[in-house]
Amino acid sequence: MTTLKMAIRNILRQKKRTILLGGAIAFGVMIITLVGSLTSGLAVNANRTFTNLLGGHIYVSGSEVTASGREVTVVRDVASLEEALLSIENEIEEIHFRSQAGGEMIFGSATEPIQLSGVDWDSETTLRSNLDLTQGNIADVQLEDTIIVPEPVLDALGVVMGESVLVRLTSITGQQTVGDFVIRGTVADAGNFGLASGYVSRSYLNGIIGMTEDQFQRVNIGLVDTTLVDSVAQTLESELILLGKLEIVEEEETGGPPNPAMMMQGMGFGFQVDEEDRWEGTRFVVTTINDTMEPVLTVVNLLDQVALGLFVVLLTITMVGLLNTFRMILIERTREIGTIRAVGMQRKEVRNMFLFEALTLAVVGAAVGMILSIALGAVFGAIPFGSGNPAFSVFLDGDTLAFPFNLGNVIVTLAILTAGTLFSAYLPARQAARMRPADALRTSY
Fold it and tell me: What's this model's pTM, rounded to 2 decimal places?
């Protein structure tokens, strides 16, 4: 305790030096914590946005080959799918059946591309609760011929609520078809693989694209534990392999069959399959939200790497500064060290005094850095960004950024900082401890 008190007294003796060293540590901690919170918030918000948009965490698409050799995206072998789902039933929180179709909305001479999701309004309670309607109400949008579209699409077409629009679609066998919808709801914005996304009744959409009202193209699975997405998907894939129902998707060639992302968008329609590649019954493809979010996670990981690189540079500069500072302190206190050694302080206590000074600087500097990062996170998190940029809106919590406090990252940062600080102070501390009292007292600078 005496050694710690002496260390604190020594720190307070040189206020300017202490402020500079502590400020450097605080700045480094503030930067890494703030950027780490930002990237965590971006990932969490993007995950939530994609989960709400796509309706789950794991997606199972089905396809068959017609007698004419065309691949159609539809699930008719429900028995095999249900058998495979039994392998992960304890992990499932909710499950929904959807149809997908990509096409164009038509109003007069104006057209706009749109991606339609056919949903069962009665069963998709999560979608209904998360669907932030800017116009219309949830009771009206559940009518059979309703379409919900993003407001930018409405503005681009020049239509208003309650008007009828035509949507040109492609049937599951590749023929062009047209559906008549009534706009009864709008959302601020939603993007799906670069296309505006709208919602319609699955049974109504099925009738337009050539399916019976109870059929579906994709199963959306919401998990109890979202950290198990990849492992649960692998279990499901293994079960489908055992049933001989899993499609092994290889790198697509130009002009070849659609990839899973295209199938999720309703674009896997009408492709001709070579005779030797045809199959019997329904064949399934399993994708996950992590597959969909891969470009987003790449950006987030890049920001993490930039933050880590910046932290390493700042930490290195700070540690070199600490090392040089403690060497100067050693020179300044040589006679003082000789005095306290002469009156009975042991070598270990001298060394610990220097280490306690470094540790105190690290702890106080880190605490200040944490407080600053939390304060700045709250300030930046209160700035509204709006929905002017659809690509950026997936990272927002409403219209603001989120800065969650990640305890794990903070602990790692503190551990690295503490280790680096003690390492920088160790050599001068050991040198001070090895001084002979008589030699130290004779020293003059």
Answer: 0.71
